[in-house]
Request: fold
Amino acid sequence: MKQLRLIGAPTDIGAGRRGASMGPEALRVANLQQALQQHGLNVTDGGDLSGPANPQQGPVDGFRHLEQVVAWNRSVHEAVHATLQQGQLPVLLGGDHALAIGSIAAVAQYCREQGKKLLVLWLDAHADANTNTSTPTGNIHGMPVTSLLGIGPDQLTSIGGKVPALQPDAIRQIGIRSVDREEKQHLHELGLRVYDMRHIDEHGMRVTMEQALSGIDADTHLHVSFDIDFLDPAVAPGVGTAVPGGPTYRETQLCMEMIADTGRLASLDVMELNPACDVRNQTAELVVELVESLFGKSTLIR
Reply:
């Protein structure tokens, strides 16, 4: 039986808009733990991590709240790594997407220790590949991908003990539709594999996911970093940085079910749920359904 551990990271320290700090509690209110337990999973709620409050200051050298973001990520890194070492599957409940730095650095460290191959699926409207010189805002939730690839200040890039934590070929981005001008250049230079919305429009979600999941084998640790703004805001309004034109509810269900079909999902981030932007917690309830699909809920026995 799969053992899951929920880890709350209630902070919006890396975001421009406040409210993602309430995300973990909204997912609990939407009965995430109970929903997963119905599928025969053993789910422990590890409660919330703690870290510095949001000082709501402007950027310094192109970074907002660098020191506080580092503190939160260290805490996330420690919790995720410990969970993996105990043989459990960590489910990080965000919080803003800057926390993926600590989460994925921990997964990468664990994979190095176990001699496993890591594949990260980055489901997001945004590429999150800015740097302090290209960012229009200084918000670090726009920089986790570059940080994990070793671009940025030491205290962010070295969480997890190895710089870079990942090579670009370990990440596949899906659903991207909002990229800043200089960030576009970064993606090109880094050679990141990006399945943007045009690719999904042209090829459909099934072919896109077959491509994104290609090469997975018994030796692969699959990590999903799921930013809720991946979804079209018409169905998932509860996010701080909504971008129109995302995958529909059905397309997202297919995406999740195809990930589940691999049987390789071994760690998960659920990020950027912002109840302050939501309508009666509908986005949180939708996310719970999608996470159930990630862990094998299906209409029929397949």
